[in-house]
Amino acid sequence: MEELTIILLGKQGAGKSASGNTLLGKHAFHTAPSSERVTRACSMSMSTVDKQKIKVIDTPGWCDSSQFETEMKQDIIESVNMYNPHVFLLVLTTGRFTNEEITTVMNILKEFGDEVIKYMIVLFTKGDELEEPIEDYLKELHSELEQIIKISGGRVHVFNNRNEKDCQQTSLLLKKINDLVKENKNKCYTESMYNKNKKQCRNEAENSVAENRKSPAEDENRDDDDDQVSICDADQKEKGQTMIDRKEFEKVKEKVDELTKTIQDQLMADMNNLRIRLNTVQFLVFTKAHHTQKEFTKKN
Description:
Residues 200-228 are annotated as: Disordered. This protein is an alpha/beta fold.
């Protein structure tokens, strides 16, 4: 059997390291009974499970912090591009999902592109705390996460990392991974796929900025060479025009520019999230159509 390369992604505290240990059948990655960050750099470990060699890469928890953005995120990207994984395990904990969890998932999809969904399996941890069948639990999920699971072919699995000796849960996950690899014709997620997504994101961002700049600006620098700017005060029309100092005008203009940039940045972020949601729906429609076509072909 072909060696499998598996990368664990998810929010900090989701149980990525513990899941890696369960999957490998040994204590390869450091864990701690808390939500504090334990993994600060990507690490890889190998093992043979059910007569198949597997390579598992543990990654730092995805979060919104300056340290993550400047150091850890780049480490994850480099590891993905270096190892070319057969599958991404998106690790989530069972329980109530907050906006933070949803944002984390969206940021991962935004970073690696729509193509990553073809190589993704959602792995829920803390299966021992699940009080209902996984099928019923999935029906109660956040709508956006539910859509992601749907477009990924409903590929989900549940781990109880407190029972690492349960070989059946590992064997079942490996079967799902091998089925996915077969479905993808043994192809891996590659650096070229990542670069293609980043190029698309840059183009969309540049187009967005260009569109925002298409507004009348004839009067913006009309008085650049004047020493003062004249402003008409409605309450002092009878007294004539009131002159304000150019420096004061520049301060006001600077604040307006800052506000404009903030709005543009927020619009770009909203557009990126909207793009992900639209692509999610499009992919879901495509997947459904493809499945229907296959069923029709079988019947005929």
